[in-house]
Specification:
With 204 residues, the protein is of the alpha/beta class. The chain has helices spanning 2-58, 80-89, 128-142, 153-164, 183-199, and strands at residues 70-73, 95-99, 117-121, 146-152, 170-176. Helix 4 packs parallel to helix 5.
């Protein structure tokens, strides 16, 4: 009997050791699973962010029909003014509207293209929101049905949003290139400005 008791004691002790090892192994696996889930979630968020950035700022929908009511150049970087003037000279619209500026505001008003009404203005406030307000007032005054905005790809989405709140007609966008080294700054700026337009400044 004494030997049998020792045998059972050894078996029970062995089972207890196995359970402890299994519990310790499971405990050590939990942090690894948690870290794996966090990595997968972070990668998914990064992919979604990259896709949204590409769709909103790098490759937005763009283009215009053969004729619109007005061509509107928004102020900002890129060769916007030459592009807007070329469209006006091609008789793509009877009106050319120029927000005065290039890398800011207070820039020149171009010579009037033949057979085109030229309107130059300085928005107040000197922002895309201020420009959209002017476009809305001009559209109401002259009964515009459509406009083509001349801007850059990075500003495309936000410009559409701002102008659509002040103008109920059709909005098209023609974009001009910008230097590759401007993209990091422009993407960061446009994300912040788009969030501001969506959350804070939601009216015309």
């Amino acid at each position: 009997m004494h030997g049998l008791g020792e045998s059972w004691g050894s078996v029970l002790t062995g089972e207890g050791t196995g359970e402890q090892r299994e519990a310790a192994s499971a405990t050590s696996r939990r942090p690894r699973r948690r870290a794996r889930r966090l990595v997968i979630a972070a990668l998914a968020a990064l992919i979604l962010f990259a896709a949204a950035t590409a769709r909103l700022f790098a490759w937005p929908a763009q283009g215009m029909p053969a004729h619109v009511s007005a061509i509107v150049m928004l102020a900002g970087p890129g060769d916007r003014l030459p592009a807007a003037v070329r469209l006006a000279r091609a008789q793509r619209a009877p009106v050319l509207v120029v927000s005065r500026g290039h890398e800011g505001y207070g820039g020149p008003c171009p010579a009037r293209p033949p057979h085109v009404r030229l309107i130059c203005f300085e928005p107040d406030p000197a922002t895309t929101q201020g420009e959209a307000e002017v476009v809305g007032r001009l559209a109401h005054r002259y009964h515009w049905q459509s406009v083509a905005l001349v801007t850059t790809r990075a500003q495309d989405t936000r410009a559409r949003l701002r102008v659509s709140r002040c103008f109920g007609g059709r909005i098209y966008v023609v974009t001009v290139p910008q230097p590759w080294y401007d993209w990091p700054y422009q993407l960061g700026y446009e994300w912040a400005a788009l969030v501001k337009a969506l959350v804070i400044q939601r009216a015309c």
